[in-house]
Design a protein that fits this description.
Distance between the termini: 23 Å
Order of helices and strands: HHHHHHHHHHHH
Radius of gyration: 22 Å
Number of strands: 0
Length: about 240
């Protein structure tokens, strides 16, 4: 039986573990000594910081009920705590409560505008609701503010461009990831489709086809059953 790889299914699998967990420490937990970094003893954590620490441990352990309870206690004491808001947003993402995640992470981003991980989580919450157009701006800002090669944000942004019909942007965004993603079937599939729809010169994406050839699925892809430039006779797998 020929294998079929619906784009959205393949990508949902590849991104399932892409939740970026922001584990930050509230201001109350940061207790540098008045005598500088060489001081032998550091002040004990405040009660709020201790509760936050318990919440982060629970989140790492997958105990979402305990994590949520802890972070809400922190929020009750510090209503503008970006770390607590952000981690509650992560809890909501883990529970697939997308609207709640968007609300919490939007507020967290307001109080922590320089923390890219908050915006990355916000974009992921939008992505999971198929609201690709709304995910683009926070992802673009992550790439602008952090390293341009930030792989997770770049991959997600390329997919959002693809699903909103911005095929040229998708191609140029995703091709940057070629060195580490050349063996990723979902990546090759989407990059190939994006390049086709963008009507880029043949020689700019021939290497993508060879990657699909290595995966032995090139003849099963949509363009091989059409009269497109990718059709059989124009692109051949190397021996």
């Amino acid at each position: 039986m020929p294998r079929r790889f619906p784009v959205r299914f393949v990508l949902s699998v590849s991104l399932f573990s892409a939740v970026f967990v922001l584990i930050a420490t509230p201001a109350a937990a940061q207790t540098p000594s008045a005598h500088g970094p060489n001081t032998a003893k550091q002040a004990p954590l405040s009660r709020t910081a201790s509760i936050f620490h318990d919440g982060t441990e629970a989140l790492h352990a997958g105990d979402l009920d305990r994590a949520e309870k802890s972070f809400r206690q922190v929020l009750a004491a510090e209503p503008n705590s970006a770390p607590a808001l952000s981690n509650l947003g992560v809890v909501a993402i883990r529970r697939q409560r997308w609207e709640e995640a968007v609300r919490l992470l939007t507020k967290a981003a307001k109080f922590a505008p320089k923390v890219p991980g908050v915006r990355l989580n916000l974009a992921l919450a939008y992505y999971r609701q198929n609201r690709y157009d709304l995910a683009i701006a926070p992802l673009e800002s992550v790439l602008h503010d952090s390293a341009p090669s930030q792989a997770q944000a770049r991959y997600l942004l390329g997919l959002c461009y693809f699903f909103t019909g911005r095929y040229t942007d998708a191609t140029h965004t995703l091709e940057f990831l070629w060195p580490e993603q050349a063996g990723n079937l979902a990546y090759l599939y989407v990059l190939g489709l994006a390049a086709q729809h963008a009507k880029l010169p043949d020689d700019s994406y021939g290497i993508v086809i060879q990657g699909l050839c290595r995966a032995r699925i090139v003849e099963e892809l949509p363009w091989q059953r059409s009269n497109s430039r990718f059709a059989r006779g124009n692109v051949k797998c190397e021996a």
